Amino acid sequence: MSSARPLPAPGHGGADFEQRVDFDRLRRYRLERARAALAASDCGAFLLFDFYNIRYTTQTWIGGALGDKMTRYALLTRDGEPVLWDFGSAAKHHQLYCPWLPQENCRAGMLGLRGAIAPEAGLMASAVTEIRHLLAEHGLAGQPVGVDIIELPFHAEMQRQGLTVVDAQQPMLDARQIKSADEIMLLTQAAAMVDGVYQDIVESLKPGIRENDIVALANKRLYEMGSEQVEAINAVSGERCNPHPHNFSDRLIRPGDQAFFDIIQSYNGYRTCYYRTFGVGHATPSQRDAYTRAREWMDAAIEAVKPGVGTDDIARLWPAATDFGFASEMAAFGLQFGHGLGLGLHERPIISRLNSLDSPIEIQPGMVFALETYCPASDGFSAARIEEEVVVTSDGPRILTLFPAQDLVIANPY
């Protein structure tokens, strides 16, 4: 039994009597990591459209509804401060409330809302011209520009204006995979919020409640507790458990159901991915056996987590796809699974038999990832799903997800 103190989840506010998240230190750490990734690349600059990379480098955020519109973008050069283009009123807000960015670097921008404004309107052409002039001012004319994700018309416009486009997503994911103490504290706080939601779910999980009622309950509680975004909640019960549909419905919960949930939300940008499985009222031997096997696979994976271990070593501890009813590892992807957590839901490392056996990544201190196992029950329709969030330390794994899961929890037993 470890005598280490629990990882702190100190609360949502600041305090003068405790060391909590130091946001200035967090901002410096993230920008320094991005700068180091740029310096190690062959690029003169990174042009970033990925919402997570923009936040990582500029320390700004706006509502999630605009996150997939490919309109916000940021330019990071080798020797300059990040330049951000955003919705005009948001850019003005950044000028007022984000003093770590020079005011002149917070600019109004608009590229077309994923084609709603056609490229022929010229917005993309003028944006690329502005970027090209900034590169020239920094002595970077002619050097490759790394881009993480991009719309085809914008890519074509960059090429038309003579810019060489290369991939920036790989170096940015490398930069983001090692978490600072502040990032780990935010991830811990996010997990603690879900701990509390699962208590509410267990108390409410009775025959007659619907899957979507649980989703509504979880959303309400998370936003009350300070969640920035509830990205998705899976609520899966009864005959819907196998195969796993990765969604929720209006199905009525019934006595004896096996039910599992995944809560994906963010606190100050840092996400959870946190499954738990419950029996409703009681559980059958088939359901308990499935849970026991899923737990065994989970415990074996957690025990293997330590610096220097390869992701292939962890993936080999999980059953092959054909061992639990799937034709191939592609068909079973995401069921026996690990993925990095941070500003993005799926960061490095990605751990599965599909990719890790041939392309392993070394586990390093400071990585934070979720491990997920799934076991279908012998009854043909029930299934157990467990997920634990793990911090890698020099002494081994630390678990962030603390709601009881060693044995199958029976909600409202009778």
Summarize the structure.
The protein is of the alpha+beta class and 414 residues long.
Tell me the name of the CATH class of the largest domain: Alpha Beta
Q: What coarse outline follows from CA principal-axis ratios?
A: globular
State the CATH superfamily name of the largest domain.
Creatinase/methionine aminopeptidase superfamily
Number of domains: 2
Average the pLDDT over all residues and give the rounded result: 96
Q: Which topology of the largest domain does CATH recognise?
A: Creatine Amidinohydrolase
Low-pLDDT segments, ≥5 res: none
Q: What's the helix-strand series? A: HEHEEHEHEHEHHHEEEEHHEEEEEE
The biggest sheet, with number of strands, parallel, antiparallel or mixed sense and barrel status, is: 6 strands, mixed
What's the total helix number?
10
Rg, Å, rounded: 23 Å
- Kindly estimate the percentage of residues that lie in beta strands according to DSSP: 15-25%
- Structural class, please? alpha+beta
> Span from first to last CA?
33 Å
Count of strand segments: 16
Task: Please give the CATH architecture of the largest domain.
Answer: Alpha-Beta Complex
- The helicity comes to 25-40%
Q: Reading side by side through the largest sheet, how are the strands ordered? A: 4-3-2-1-5-6
